[in-house]
């Protein structure tokens, strides 16, 4: 009787856990999670018990984004190791001289899903698939686009209405699969902390605090869910940039400096990308390169070296960068200025992004000095087990995290 009960319980346990426990010998899965707009100091608010525990198991640090400190350029940098100037995604908004009549905008699917814009660098999920490592993307900028006809084995069209809980369940469902069809490289993306940071600013507010706490809880569910299945996984958590407090009282109005017909502002806000209209070049250069208060403007050829920006033909002729917390406008604001924004110089500590790593291949590390986000890519390649493509990242920077 007891023997039969034990056998039944064993069978039940096996049925519940599936084949996962059989694979101690398989290489661990890499799960790359982006918390859009998550500043490292948000961890100090006492709202993130899961992340606090996971940092003890591995590492948490501040990471310097690439210029411009915007969502699309930096997400593509993290998965290619190339700075925006070299990965081709030089802004959330951009114009290519090859297609002067079209503007890339992340909200315009016709442009954002066109491989034309993404061809200058190969993202990690494509390289993985090429060497036989199954990849799956639960959202990531660029993940919906085919490269030379290839895509991740599992991918989804971005939809903000797919809530964080559903994103977690999707990844857990992937991990529950038999090993042969289980992804070994997974990306995940959460946008709610960035959204609250824009609306309420990076200071304390019930809304931003709630967003931070919720994402912490969701990441706790993913990590514990994967662990409960017995699937070994290394987690790398990154943010794309930080967030600075903005206000209507800190606005630079381009209308006060130059006549609007004389230029096109491809982008405005914490930084502005300005293309002088034909025949007005000198007027625009004279007005902007003076320099006006609370921002610094540069010809693309003369940008400060630490920005690593300006060689790509998609970069506009003049790049103006506002002082921290200031907003450059061209006419009326397209969105409320009061709240939070990003796009400033990556050396500005408000723009710094959270980086975390933990898992069976990660050595617990108490302190990691500030580093550039290009170095995450070689770490991801090492964790996942393939040769990284040439990039701006150096494997040596994060190599001390590897190995127990
Ligand atoms: P930003 O304007 O730089 O703050 O960008 C953040 C926004 O990017 C988020 O609120 C998302 O709605 C949007 N976003 C993130 N990933 C994607 C994607 N794959 N496709 C389109 N929009 C996205
Ligand atoms: Zn972002
Ligand atoms: Zn944002």
Oligomeric state of this protein:
single chain
**Order of strands in the sheet with most strands:** 6-5-7-1-8-17-2-18
Structural class: alpha/beta
Write out the distinct hetero groups bound to the structure: adenosine monophosphate, zinc ion
Count of distinct strands: 18
Largest sheet: 8 strands, mixed
Average pLDDT score: 93
Query: End-to-end span in angstroms?
Result: 45 Å
Query: What are the segments in which pLDDT stays under 50 over at least 5 consecutive residues?
Result: 5-23
Rg, nearest Å? 22 Å
What is the succession of H and E elements? Answer: HEHEHHEEHHEEHEHHEEEEEHEEEEEEHH
Enumerate how many helices there are, as a single number.
Answer: 12
Strand content is 15-25%
Helix content: 25-40%
Describe the global form: globular
Report on this model:
- The chain is an alpha/beta fold and 404 residues long.
- Helix content is 28%, strand content 19%.
- The strands form five sheets. An eight-stranded mixed β-sheet has the order 6-5-7-1-8-17-2-18, with helices on both faces.
- Helix 7 runs parallel beside helix 9 (206-228) and helix 8 (192-200) runs antiparallel to helix 9 (206-228).
- It starts with a helix and ends in a 6-residue tail after the last helix.
- Adenosine monophosphate is lined by residues 36, 70-71, 92, 106, 112, 139, 141, 158, 160, 191, 194-195.
- Adenosine monophosphate binds next to helix 8.
Layout of strands and helices, then pairs:
Elements (H helix, E strand, L loop, with lengths): L1 H16 L11 E7 L13 H9 L1 E6 L6 H10 L3 H4 L5 E3 L7 E3 L3 H4 L11 H7 L4 E4 L15 E2 L8 H12 L9 E6 L1 H9 L5 H23 L4 E6 L5 E3 L4 E3 L9 E5 L3 E6 L4 H8 L6 E5 L18 E5 L4 E3 L9 E3 L11 E6 L12 E2 L3 H9 L10 H4 L6
Parallel strand pairs: 1-7, 1-8, 2-18, 5-6, 5-7, 10-15
Antiparallel strand pairs: 2-17, 3-4, 8-17, 9-16, 11-12, 12-14, 13-14
The structure holds adenosine monophosphate and zinc ion (ZN) (2 copies).
